[in-house]
Design a protein that fits this description.
The structure holds two protein chains of two kinds. By secondary structure, chain A is mainly α. Chain A has two domains: 7-94, Rna Polymerase Sigma Factor, Chain: A (Orthogonal Bundle); 99-212, Orthogonal Bundle (Arc Repressor Mutant, subunit A). Chain A contains ten helices and no strands. Chain B has a single domain (9-81), classed as Arc Repressor Mutant, subunit A (Orthogonal Bundle), CATH 1.10.10. Chain B starts with 8 loop residues before the first helix and ends with a helix. The relative contact order of chain B is 0.10. Classes of the chains: A mainly alpha, B mainly alpha.
Chain lengths: 214, 82
């Protein structure tokens, strides 16, 4: 569960209230990318997401005087974002994101295609690898190109999966922080994370296999 | 002794995140460890998931564009002036 307000939070809140522009810059730099990721769960276009994030910062500034530290500053900022993004999504006639966050497993998405395994009625090894993963060449993993493959795979994910992997694995947030920011349960967060990571792994496997043999 | 249900590779790949997140009952975890100990394909698969997580950690989050930075600075100054 959430921790009591951190020392950092306290300083930041005081600095913001005092009108310290640097404190505001620090916050916006830290949270801009994650806020964009979460906004894009609710609104489709990037430019609308940008507007939602900017509106969020206005909400933060206008509300900071009343911030009571019942939650962390981070959670509070994301709650403002989510409210603004939901209102915006409703105006756009979108309702999809709510079900994506509340019931992410309605549509099954296997981590690895079924063709990679022996059939369930196989006499000796049902469900075992028919085409097993091959070890990855260490030297190629470090190449900048490989990082590009990861970035493109993340961009190609559905927005909720993209948001979760961005917060957890790019930003390095804990699962608690991520659940609080997104307003999802631990289980649903894990389902989204699992799907996201599985797809990024698959993209890496495809890439490394394709250029691995001459 | 009753025979313990064997975990298939196809089931294992769906449990990897629970496993890596430490969100698994001890008995299931043991079953998964036992499977990996005897299965090269799954051992490599789990290693690839760890590598995937590490490589994702190398990705740098998007920076504020100068336009957005300017707009935010303006908002801040307007707010401060009121």
């Amino acid at each position: 569960m959430e921790h009591a307000v951190s020392v950092d939070d306290k300083h930041l809140v005081e600095a913001l209230r005092a009108g310290d522009e640097r404190a505001f810059e620090q916050l916006t730099r830290e949270y801009h990318a994650p806020l964009m990721r979460v906004a894009q769960i609710y609104v489709t276009s990037r430019s609308v997401a940008e507007e939602v994030v900017q509106e969020t910062w206005l909400g933060v500034l206008n509300g900071i005087g009343r911030f009571e530290a019942r939650s962390s500053l981070k959670t509070w900022i994301f709650r403002i974002l989510t409210n603004i993004a939901k209102t915006r999504a409703q105006r756009e006639g979108r309702t999809l994101p709510f079900s994506v966050l509340e019931r992410p497993d309605t549509v099954p998405e296997p981590a690895v295609g079924p063709e990679r395994f022996l059939p369930p009625d196989h006499e000796r090894w049902p469900g075992h690898w028919s085409s097993r993963p091959q070890p990855w060449p260490e030297d190629r993993l470090l190449a900048a190109e490989t990082r590009g493959v990861v970035e493109r795979a993340i961009e190609a994910l559905p927005p909720a999966q993209r948001a979760v992997i961005s917060l957890r694995d790019v930003e390095g947030w804990s699962s608690d922080e991520t659940c609080n920011a997104l307003g999802v349960t631990e289980t649903n967060q894990r389902v989204l994370l699992h799907r996201a990571r599985s797809k990024v792994r698959q993209a890496l496997e495809d890439y490394l296999a394709e250029t691995g043999d001459e | 002794m009753s025979e313990i249900e064997q975990l298939s590779c196809q089931e294992l790949v769906e449990l990897v995140t629970d496993y890596l997140e430490g969100a698994m009952p001890e008995a299931d975890r043991q079953r998964l460890d036992d499977h990996i100990a005897g299965c090269d394909g799954c051992r490599d698969y789990v290693a690839q998931m760890r590598t995937t997580i590490a490589l994702t950690g190398e990705v740098r989050p998007a920076l504020l564009t100068p336009d957005v930075e300017r707009a935010l600075r303006d908002s801040f100054r307007d707010w401060k002036a009121t």
